[in-house]
Amino acid sequence: MLESLEKMAADPILGLTAAYNQDQNPNKVDLGAGVYKDENGNTPVFAAIKNAETVWQQEETTKAYIAQSGFADFNSSMIKHIFGESHAAVKNERLKSVMAPGGSGSLRVGAEMLNRANEGAALWVSTPTWGNHIPLLGSTGLQIQEYPYYDSDTHGLLFDAMMESLKNAGRGDIVLLHGCCHNPTGVDLSKTQWDAVADLAQQNGFLPFVDTAYHGLGEGLEEDSYGIRKMADSVDEMLIAYSCSKNFGLYRERTGAIIVLGKNTEAAEASSSHITNIARQMYSLPPAYGAALVKIILQDAKLYQNWKLELDEMRERINGLRVTFADALNERGAGTDFSFIKNQYGMFSFLGISKEQIQRLRDEYSIYLVGSSRINVAGISQKNIAYLSDAIVSVL
Ligand code: LMR
Fold first, then answer.
1. Residue of the nearest CA to atom 9 in ligand 1?
2. Is the domain of 203 the same as that of 272?
3. The domain spanning residue 82 has which CATH number?
4. Residue ranges of E strands in the chain
5. Is residue 211 among the annotated active site residues?
6. Known catalytic residue: 246?
7. Least buried of 109, 319, 326, 350, by fewest C-beta within 10 Å?
8. What is the pTM of this model?
9. What's the pLDDT score for residue 335?
10. What separation in Å is there between the alpha carbon of 36 and the centre of ligand 1?
11. What is the pLDDT of residue 180?
């Protein structure tokens, strides 16, 4: 039977990591998958996570199954962490969180639930969006529609075109938004633009589905929460897929949450009961370990402060690299003005170079980036910046 299956091509993002790891060139540079790296190219374990691991070793008394929605204190802490204690949706108990395997698992079970609620509903995604959004969400049965987002001429947002397009999204439709640090463009909505999208969601009745995988890596934890909080002020129903992979450095632990905002407590509970039922059919229960560490950090003021300082340092390093890198390219007379990289947020930006140029960077210089020309800014360091900038300018 299985001979009918042909070997598939490597994943366009994760496959790059595998190829990079096999590359013997000592000068190789990994700008592929969205994984934070320090100045030495390592992806460190947060010190706060190491401390939480020590605490958990003492606290954990059993490996018996956890509840279907995960740890109750993870879920309640996560809601407060994202919304703050005083948000009306928190006070009115309209939010329900379910632990899920990372951001991708959260997106998937959320989308499956939406497809149960309205089979074959339109799911609007930005053009472009994360390379795995369409396969991951479209394979649930939801029908993908696209709205304009990135302007490759100005390297900014096509906001008017986006709004014009979203006027066609109505009740029963879902609109996927990136909470912050848009993947792959690094172009985020301003506060006033969030306000306008929230107004439109309220008027048209579409359901916002906010993917939040880089919370705290854009402008800061509070600033990066603006869109989610504003949206929750404006609409009756929404979903948030939250990943702890990047901002807690828990990539391999598959830690995340799918959070439902309902019209009221009963509605949120009903939707989340479908999520746990769907998870039961797919993988039964979420992984516990990473979530145990996150809940320890979120519940301990000192650990939380330490974690936040580590996150601040990562964000500042990325934002600093954006400036240094754009300047390095511009100083070399790249022909294109790369200053736009300085104005974007999170790990990613598009270089805006061709497929052939991307291939040359890989073949001639062992520099790995996604085929869309997306780079992971965190993969740049003081050690590789001259090599990288020279190589890019040479292929332009
Ligand atoms: C990325 O976009 O590189 C990350 O979200 C990793 C992944 O799973 O694709």
1. 13
2. yes
3. 3.40.640.10
4. 29-30, 95-100, 122-127, 143-148, 150-151, 156-157, 174-178, 207-212, 238-243, 256-261, 348-350, 367-368, 374-376
5. yes
6. yes
7. 319
8. 0.97
9. 86
10. 11
11. 98
